[in-house]
Write a structure and sequence with these properties.
10 strands, eight-stranded parallel barrel, 355 residues, binds ligand G2I
């Protein structure tokens, strides 16, 4: 068995164990309930665990103090991703100064709630401090800066973060490599170097490449497919591909599942990492119903693909979503509304996991 396939097999077995542990504890709680049997509502994490998958959400650090918000994150999800606080500009805002306070807070929260942590993200052109992007480093220097960042962050969280988005958004939509400072200065080998550095810092973390608009079969996902195939051929320690899946209502690619499947067939895990489905304002009840169906289709596509380890939604509530700020005129993208009430999309996700 080649090293990459072995890593993927270990990863899949571990995901099943975690899922089983979470499911087991939920069952145990239900079994101890006394008195007349009141049917406890099934949660997303129960349903996901029963299907051998994780269900995650991006967590906004500033909202963890809101008890309504944090109790939904704790009870409904088996995985958490830091929406911002594990990014380079937060973690190493100036050279050599590391700030892990927000990330540590999320790791503590996850440990208290028996959740997996999905690390986001190590090497990305955005939320990158100017000391890196405009630092005037040559190739050797920037590679050392990049590898040092990865080593410090991954070793800080070694054993506590299950997955890392090692490289995020490396491609342009036409499938060419994005001219980030890393690509421009180091060249394409920054990608392999980043994975090797992360693997050295935590050999047990599963290492992913993550991107958006790779959700169907298109020029960008074809380029991703070629890149990960070549990384595997070179023996680069890559375990997984993340599909962000920032979708628009009624534009779910018809080949979504087929696309996940072809990456899974390479022996890699596939993960839906940042799912949301935005709607043009004002969203009416028919829009919300179709949104629920499309959430369900994404989740059931993951469940239908053996290598799909889980689905993470990019935030629980429409009150906190990045969507309206980035796409004026669009919103209502999340499974809970701005008052933290579940929307039809919530039931779509539950049904997608077989709940
Ligand atoms: O843009 C949506 C996502 C696309 N894929 C990678 C993700 O990491 C990205 O997440 C978003 C966060 O949801 C936003 O919250 O990344 C944005 C930045 O690229 C985040 O927005 C930033 C704002 O732009 C900043 O003004 C703000 O200071 O969040 C920062 C922290 O609140």
């Amino acid at each position: 068995m080649s090293p990459h396939v072995r890593r993927a097999a270990i990863a899949a077995a571990a995901a099943t164990l975690v899922a089983g542990a979470v499911y087991g504890s939920a069952q145990a709680q239900e079994d101890t309930s006394q008195g007349p049997s009141v049917q406890q509502a099934e949660t997303l994490r129960d349903a996901a665990s029963a299907s051998g998958r994780f269900v995650g959400t991006a967590v906004n650090d500033g909202r963890l103090y809101d008890g309504n918000y944090s109790s939904i994150v704790a009870s409904e999800f088996s995985s958490v991703t830091a929406e911002n606080v594990m990014k380079w500009d937060t973690v190493q805002p100036s050279q050599g100064n590391f700030n892990f306070s927000g990330g540590d807070r999320l790791v503590d929260f996850a440990q208290q709630n028996n959740q997996q942590v999905y690390g986001h993200t190590l090497v990305w052109h955005s939320q990158l401090p100017s000391w890196v992007s405009n630092g005037g480093f040559n190739a050797e220097q920037l590679n050392a800066v990049m590898e040092n960042h990865i080593t410090e962050v991954v070793s800080h969280y070694a054993g506590q973060v299950a997955y890392w988005d090692v490289v995020n958004e490396a491609f342009n939509d036409d499938g060419t490599l994005r001219q980030s400072v890393f690509q421009q200065t180091i060249g394409e080998e920054y990608i392999a170097n980043a994975f090797r550095a992360a693997d050295a810092a935590d050999p047990n973390a599963k290492l992913c490449i993550n991107d958006y608009s790779t959700d169907g079969i298109n020029a960008k996902s074809n380029a991703m497919y070629d890149l990960v195939s070549s990384l595997l051929d070179q023996g680069v320690p890559i375990d997984c591909v993340g599909f962000q899946s920032h979708l628009i209502l009624d534009q779910l690619p018809s080949d979504y599942q087929e696309n996940l499947q072809r990456f899974s067939d390479l022996g890699l895990e596939v993960i839906v990492t940042e799912l949301d489905i935005r709607i043009q304002d004002p969203a009416d009840s028919s829009d919300l119903q179709r949104q629920a169906e499309q959430y369900q289709q994404v989740v059931s596509s993951c469940v239908a693909v053996s290598g799909c380890a889980g689905v993470t939604v990019w935030g629980i509530s429409d009150a906190d979503s990045w969507v309206p700020g980035t796409f004026p005129g669009y919103g209502a993208a999340c499974p809970w509304d701005e008052y933290l009430q579940p929307k039809p999309a919530y039931d779509g996700i539950l049904t997608g996991f077989g709940g």
